[in-house]
Amino acid sequence: MNILGIESSCDECSAAIVQDGRRILSNVVASQIDIHRPYNGVVPELASRTHTEWISATVKESLDEAGLALDDVDGIAVTNRPGLLGALLVGISFAKGLAFSRELPLVGVDHIRAHLYAPQLEHDIAYPFIGLLVSGGHTIISRVNAFDDIEVMGTTIDDACGEAFDKVAAYYKLGYPGGVVIDKMSKEGDAEAFRFPDASLHKGQHVYDVSYSGLKTAVINQISQFRMEGKADTTENIVASFQKAAIDMLLKRVEKAVDDTGIRRIVAGGGVAANSYLRSSVNGRKDWEVYFPSLGLCTDNAAMVAGIGYHYLKNGMRDDYRLTALSRVQGFKKNYP
Questions:
Q1: Measured distance CA(207)–CA(180) in Å, rounded
Q2: What is the CATH number of domain 2-116+298-314?
Q3: pTM for this one?
Q4: Is the dihedral angle over the CA atoms 307, 312, 315, 319 positive or is it negative?
């Protein structure tokens, strides 16, 4: 089955053709980073307008790159949640129109599930595994039992991890996107120059949860309180120490999830999964079986949408033309305290 995937949940306009859920025939990503860079973040109205201008050409390019015509497409998978409503509706409307005109089966795909499926485009990964989804909009630690069976163990109670990177970078005027800039600059800094605090959350239902609001405040407004004696307060040292604290916070929760479940298979996805400190720290655990997507599959892309969409369509699961956009995460089980 050749599945056309369409992704427009935020600022990446993407279309891809994936065969049988694994073989990527094309994966075209039209990035809007340059458009949003002056604002140090995504402007929803600009994002949706740009998707409207780019979506048709992006889909055509994906077909051309795959060497296929629309007659060779067996189904369409489109991101319909979560994300920016206006941006999502552009992709959904285009997908519905194309599906109707060609009488193709259509399925809406959850962006979070697609990110956790991304490594499976390149690796044969057994279930269950501990899923770590880290991006600009979401931070989730989960137990993944199947492609569509995800139990949320922990999440952020305020800012997402990638959002914290962007806000720290914006405050220090480092550039956008913040995660890329901080990761690069951190290599020139001393990650032990500042000892920023971990989130002090209550036990019980928050045992796997994270919080980045306090860390962000410490890095921006209370910097002098956490500088170690004899260490310089250079920007490189600040961001290196911030990156270490932000990622270590995640790693502690993942370690606890591994200990509590006995599952030592870790799968990461999302834009922050490209972070070099996160990748080296997790890959350094020889007692874990670790899977990261390649860098091109960490950020939003349609290949992951087409890949997971194949499994829905193969199992006879599809949506009708009432499919609509949802801005928030829905349909996940929260079975862990």
A1: 29
A2: 3.30.420.40
A3: 0.94
A4: negative
